[in-house]
Amino acid sequence: MPAPSFETLLYDVADGVATITLNRPDKLNAFTAQMRDDLVSVFDHTDADDAVRAVIVTGAGRAFCAGADLSSGGKTFDYAARAEEAREAMRVGDVYRDGGGVVTLRMFRSLKPILGAINGAAVGIGMTMQLPMDMRLASSEARFGFVFARRGITPEAASSWFLPRLVGLQTALEWCCTGRIFGADEALSRGLVRSVHAPADLLPAARALAREIADHTAPVSIALTRQMMWRMAGASHPMDAHRLDSRAIQSRGRSADAREGVSAFLDKRTPTYPDTVSGDLPDFFDWRSEPPFV
Predict the structure, then answer these.
(1) Which of 139, 145, 227, 280 is in the most buried spot, having the most CB atoms within 10 Å?
(2) What is the pLDDT of residues 127-166, one digit of tens each?
(3) R_g over Cα of the chain
(4) Longest Cα pair distance anywhere in the chain, in angstroms?
(5) Which domains are seen in the chain, by residue range?
(6) Hey, which residues does 49 pair with through a beta bridge?
(7) pLDDT (tens digit, 9 = 90+) per residue, 198-247?
């Protein structure tokens, strides 16, 4: 599949691993409406490309993403004050959808695992866009902050759902109610990131983890596993998971991938999985769906 180009992102695929780089380094990769649209588009592309087995997201320059672009001054977060075309594109009834949430919900629906390589400052939307990533690795120079209350606004990007599930309600409330900036070591100790690395080692570590996924697992199984875990994070009873697990394991158990995986194990060889995400997802659930915004 031809590699796309984007106004605010760099995109590269090598050996099954796609790397998305937020690319406004002169603005510390500040988030804009164009970046919102580019991110939604790039995850549409990675889902559709069977050559992509895992995705890494990082930032160009010394920041990951320093939050929303504040060049509009005090009107930055006033949706009604925006240009009509930009405003109406986000309108549903009498409510304007939060642009960060459009991105994180698209990431939530991803059929490929997403790894964050957090290379520097990550505040505001630069912080909340990380939350639906499956694994986050941080540079020792990374700094994090849920600074919304210090700007007179509230958390966004569906972070009120994601953040407590990752770090617990007490930590989520502390970080959001103080709005303070904290370092990579605190992010590690509270469970926000899985590991901290010297700056030069960050991307190699992320690529090694992505390679472990790409080289050893069945892509359809990974797509289902990711969606099952995220969607069951809000289930009201384990029976919901039991129903979904039962359908998934029965579907996978009769697949060509399962026959290949078991045969390769018994033959002591590397498996070659034939099923593809684009063509072989089971039809008992619409994995690309989300509830309507009302």
Answers:
(1) 139
(2) 999 999 999 999 999 999 999 999 999 999 999 999 999 9
(3) 20
(4) 65
(5) 9-213 (3.90.226.10), 217-280 (1.10.12.10)
(6) none
(7) 999 999 999 999 999 999 999 999 999 999 999 999 999 999 999 999 99
